[in-house]
Write a structure and sequence with these properties.
The chain is α/β, with parallel strands linked by helices and 219 residues long. It is globular and about 55 Å long. It has one domain (2-209): P-loop containing nucleotide triphosphate hydrolases (Rossmann fold, 3-Layer(aba) Sandwich), CATH 3.40.50.300. It has helices spanning 11-18, 41-49, 66-77, 82-95, 111-123, 141-158, 169-175, 193-197, 202-209, and strands spanning 2-4, 30-31, 34-35, 51-54, 129-133, 161-166, 179-183, 186-191. The relative contact order is 0.17. The chain contains nine helices and eight strands. InterPro entries: AAA+_ATPase, ABC_transporter-like_ATP-bd, ABC_transporter-like_CS, P-loop_NTPase. Residues 1-209 form the ABC transporter domain. One of its GO terms (molecular function) is ATP hydrolysis activity.
């Protein structure tokens, strides 16, 4: 699922509700059959361990090597020994195309490499759900396309559920099975990429074609 929408429409707020950082004023968020806002701390932490998240700016710890960044959640939430952690880190880095870069520092990486390292960390615990917050933001078109290909490949290879927040329509069309259009905090329309492109909704059409004129007022 890809959620599209302009700045300030509630895309990042949606992710915060999914992971339980915010409580909804109305309605409810259900993940794996559990109502997030009704879950106690223990249950919520267990649910969060079943999710991985790639933050918009990768959010790597600058004071840690790439390997230690990827190993962070493994050391916090598993009983793996040092050798097992090292093997898992190498497996994850290889999966995202960064094999052998454990000892590099985040400052040594390009923007695309930071995204890949952040993704390796998000996948380290073997999540069932992966959340992507604007995964192609700040990348040139070639690097963005590489990240799109990687996301699509991992969805198929790992059979994970993906929820991607983006305003990048090229990315949305490439990685989405379904797209939801978010406007003023509400889902305006949901459909396949083809259905969204053919939508008669003027809000959807204005956004996907990037038109200045229409019902959406830029903030």
């Amino acid at each position: 699922m890809v959620v599209i929408g302009g700045s300030g429409t509630g895309k990042s707020v949606l992710i915060k509700h999914i992971i339980g950082l915010l409580r909804p004023d109305e309605g409810k968020v259900v993940v794996k059959g559990a109502v997030i806002s009704e879950s106690d701390r223990s249950d919520l932490n267990e649910l969060r361990r079943s999710m991985g998240m790639l933050f918009q700016q990768a959010a790597l710890f600058d004071s840690m090597t790439v390997g230690d960044n990827v190993a962070f959640e493994l050391r916090q939430h598993t009983s793996m020994g040092a050798e097992e952690v090292a093997d898992r880190v190498e497996e994850m880095l290889t999966m995202v195309g960064l094999s052998g870069l454990q000892d590099k520092w985040p400052a040594d990486l390009s923007g695309g490499m930071k995204k890949r390292a952040g993704l390796a960390r998000a996948l380290a615990l073997g999540p069932e759900i992966v959340l992507y917050d604007e995964p192609t933001t700040g990348l040139d078109p070639i690097l963005a396309d590489q990240i799109n290909d990687l996301i699509r490949d991992l969805q198929k290879r790992l059979n994970v559920t993906s929820v991607t927040i983006t305003h990048d329509m090229i990315s949305a069309y490439k990685i989405a099975d379904r797209i939801a259009m978010l406007h003023k905090g509400r889902i305006e329309e949901v459909g396949t990429p083809g259905e969204i492109q053919d939508s008669s909704n003027p809000i959807v059409q204005q956004f996907i074609h990037g038109r200045a004129e229409g019902p959406i007022t830029p903030r």
